[in-house]
Amino acid sequence: MIEFLSLKKITAKYADEIHDAVLRVVDSGWYLQGEETKNFENNYANYIGTKHCVGCANGLDALIWIFRAYIELGVMKAGDEVIVPANTYIATILAITENGLKAVLVEPNSETLELDENLIESAITSRTKAIALVHLYGQCAYTDKIGEICKKYNLKLVEDNAQAHGCLYNGIKTGAIGDAAGHSFYPGKNLGAFGDGGAVTTNDSDLAEAIRALANYGSQKKYVFKYAGRNSRLDEIQAAILNVKLQHLDEDLAIRRSVAQRYHKFITNPLIKLQRIDDWNAHVFHLYPILCNRRDELQEYLKDNGIQTIIHYPIPPHKQECYKDWNNMQLPITEQIAQEELSLPISPVMTDEEVETVIKIINLFK
After folding, report:
1. pLDDT band at 203 (very low <50, low <70, confident <90, very high)
2. Is 164 in contact with 284 (CB distance < 8 Å)?
3. How many angstroms separate the CA atoms of 308 and 297, rounded?
4. Percent helix, strand, coil in the chain (nearest 5)?
């Protein structure tokens, strides 16, 4: 079986370094808010290109804290609107609604599968305060036009960078393009921990200070609570592991791009539609999505031929029970993607033979 993603093999690449890092934490006797976390925050901020990085418990919390901090700082208030791509993973939307803000769903471009820049302005109202821009699948969703819209309407640009660590746009890394960005270090991400983990990157010192407090019970000083916060901290072991894997991230991304380039060049089956890629540096291929109007049949065929695939995401947010008030919304492009998307195996541990097999088997699908 060609695995969709083998975390065991990825870990094995750096096993000695990871073992040493974990042992160092164990021996230190200090497991929260210590040097490992400080080092990772500094290293990751330098990698992304921002002044600040604040570690937290997971990627969802990272996004929640961004919007919560903007509310605490008086930049937003309950009922304000945030534009968000309709085809995103639900976490982006949860972070908005968790804060009493209104998510305004906008369709993606059917070719790039990213937020359609041409549909944004028609969704803006006097209550719109931000765009939550999701670099879905690892492709940069930012465009110059989106930047111009943010300036024109004085909107905050919040990046969901959960799937795009290391992605570049004109030499700037995603996570440093907007006003703030949320990052996930879930084990399956391109930069993955051994459990949950997340971070916020920003150049806004006031925002970073508020987020650090919010994620620490609302406290900036021991036993003194400025905000009614929560406990959402990145632990020392996860930070130590991330420090190891961060050193190898760019080489891992190069392998992912190489696999994707081969898929893109040699998958020629007319039944398969590939994501449009305008800039190979603006994609880190956390996922390699394809579209097929016989998706379920294709997935079963690939499984029968020893190839594991995953669907991202079979039910769009506006059709979920938790957002039942949206269930009657008609978002045809988003719904079509949900019905047709299939993610192929892609990772820094795939062999040439595995890539060739995936291409061969897909091209034989009839």
Report:
1. very high
2. yes
3. 13
4. 45, 20, 40
